[in-house]
Amino acid sequence: MKRVCIFTIIFTIVLAGCVPKGPVTLSVMTHDSFAASAPVIDSFEKANNVKLVFLKSGDAGAALNKAILTKDAPLADVFYGVDNTFLSRALDSGIYAPYASPLLAQIPAQFKLDSQNRALPVDYSDVCITYDKTYFASHNLPVPVTLEDLAKPAYKDMLVMENPATSSPGLAFLLATITHFGANGYLDYWKLLRASGVVVVDGWETAYYTNFSGSSGHGAQPLVVSYASDPAAEVFNATTKLTDSPVGSMLGTGTCFRQIEFVGILKGTRQLGLARKFVDFMLGLQFQQDMPLQMYVYPVNTAAKLPDVFVKYNQIPAQPALLDPALIASNRDQWIQAWTQAVLH
């Protein structure tokens, strides 16, 4: 009887040790526009016995503010969505743990803006003015071509944009105007836009889906600060088959701003190994080739192939506005503050 009891106890202990552990949770903070297809996410989860939890935290600027405010007790393990307009703020805040992913070898140097590999490039896109083709055709009005055109009386009350203090596309557009008009002239331009009735909202989702009059929105403004990938997105998401996109992009010299988005591991994570695997996963072909039709951005991995609809309907501006990240870093806050005073007060 005694031997049976001992055997039962040992068997129970051994059996308990063989029971597979449940998946570990890996939390990823993102901006509100993050998206990935379910099969792609499932593949990472199954391969690593992990459950991914995505914490959508507002537009890029708002999400970064949340990450900085909680850096002593981080809400997530990984943070995706900071772009080159907010990058210096993220790096200076010390929220990231460096990680030199082996996948960086497949990414061109032009996208690698942090030599310490705290923030690794994932995708890029061009922030441009998107226009509603139907509106301009029905009103027999030419589409604006230059930034100067937007301030003309013919386009009064037609433009909606995002607040640069909380939104990365809004900030990108502000930087495009600074590149074009210079640090001493951009505020005069913005005063003209204010007089011309520019509408300012907090984030891209509101601007595009609420204010914009294009097919995805039902608002009053036929011009919106958005992305050059909008034409492909509209065709791909249409409920009926389209042979042409209902929206177009202003692609004149200096009217668009090149935006690069990054991912980084948050300091303090207890899942460092898994966090590194997820960063590798975002830079790998499966995720990179999924992004164009999920978030309508371009992959940075040179081996990634673009979907046909992206190639057919999107146009890349020949001369997007560019600013040195160091110049953005040293002036961004004062530029935003000055813009706020000129446009919102």
Commentary on this structure:
This protein is an alpha/beta fold. It has two domains: 2-124 and 260-312, Periplasmic binding protein-like II (D-Maltodextrin-Binding Protein, domain 2); 125-257 and 315-343, D-Maltodextrin-Binding Protein, domain 2, CATH 3.40.190.10. Helices cover 40% and strands 18% of the residues. It has 14 helices and eleven strands. The protein has helices at residues 2-18, 38-48, 60-69, 87-93, 133-138, 147-150, 168-181, 186-195, 204-211, 230-237, 272-283, 285-290, 308-313, 325-343; strands at 24-30, 50-56, 78-83, 96-97, 120-132, 159-162, 199-201, 223-227, 247-249, 257-266, 298-299. Strands 1, 2, 3, 4, 5, 6, 7, 8, 9, 10 and 11 form an eleven-stranded mixed sheet that branches. Helix 8 packs parallel to helix 14. The relative contact order is 0.18. Mean pLDDT is 92; it is low at 1-16.
Task: Identify the notable features of this structure and list them briefly.
single chain; 345 residues; alpha/beta; D-Maltodextrin-Binding Protein, domain 2; eleven-stranded mixed β-sheet
